[in-house]
Amino acid sequence: MKHIFFLTLSVLAFSLCQTAPATKKRSLSCYVRYLEPENQLRAEATMREGDAELQPTQLADGLLYQGKEMDLMTTQGIIYRWEGPSKFPAKHVFAWKDDKGQPQQFEMSFSPILQFGFDSTTLSRKQPAKLRWEGTPLEKGESMVLLWENSTLNKTVPMEVINLSSEAAIEFPSVKIAELEPGTWTYYLVRKKLVKANVNGVAASGIIEHYTKNDTIQVK
């Protein structure tokens, strides 16, 4: 009898394992871009779901950004988007409801660059230069890109910097300044941040980019 009893339990357990629905995995990818010259903010998000390979999925109750309903775009996958004129917020919140109807949210904080500039109005290709800005120093997961443009030479020179320090500044060695030919250059900054979190089983990640206004400087 004991044999039959244990065999029956084994069959029952196997049957339950076979019929129990597999928990689907979910991931959320977010992107925020702010163009300061135009005061234009764009936010995008894609929720993916699946067992092995995650595919874009539509949410029954939609997706919110800063409490505002995002538009559903289906031309390239399933993407939720919101864009419009706005000041740059310190916090960016994406919210949705899970399968049980419970509200969930993914929050990203970000410090924009207010004022910025080099210590001198003229840069020498033979000397280092320091760029300073008002705001917080670069944090873990952040980087800065300087985009230099010279309309006379028809040239664009990008410089990407990852600088973890307690100072809201970046020092460029002379070898980097030497990449710029003599002349008048216009430049602007792009501060980027990558944020990751687990929101009740949803692997959420987001990228924020802040594009500053232009500034002009002489290089000799």
Please explain how this structure is put together.
It is a single chain. The chain is mainly β. The chain is 10% helix and 52% strand. Strands 1, 2, 3, 6, 7, 11, 13, 14, 16, 17 and 18 form an 11-stranded mixed β-sheet that branches. Strands 5-4-8-9 form a 4-stranded antiparallel β-sheet, with no helix packed on it. A hairpin with a 5-residue loop joins strand 6 and strand 7. Residues 1-17 have low confidence and may be disordered.
List its salient traits.
11-stranded mixed sheet, mainly beta, 4-stranded antiparallel sheet, single chain, 220 residues, disordered N terminus
Helix and strand topology:
Layout: H1 2-19, E1 25-35, E2 40-50, E3 55-56, E4 64-65, E5 68-69, E6 71-73, E7 79-85, E8 91-97, E9 103-109, E10 116-118, E11 122-123, E12 129-133, E13 142-150, E14 155-161, E15 169-172, H2 174-177, E16 183-199, E17 202-211, E18 215-219
Parallel strand pairs: 1-17, 11-18
Antiparallel strand pairs: 1-2, 2-3, 2-7, 4-5, 4-8, 6-7, 8-9, 10-12, 12-15, 13-14, 13-16, 16-17, 16-18
Order of helices and strands: HEEEEEEEEEEEEEEEHEEE
* Strand residue content: over 45%
User: End-to-end span in angstroms?
Assistant: 96 Å
Annotation field: number of helices: 2
Uncertain segments are: 1-17
| Global structural class | mainly beta
Largest sheet, described in full?
11 strands, mixed
Shape: elongated
For the CA atoms, what is the radius of gyration?
A: 25 Å
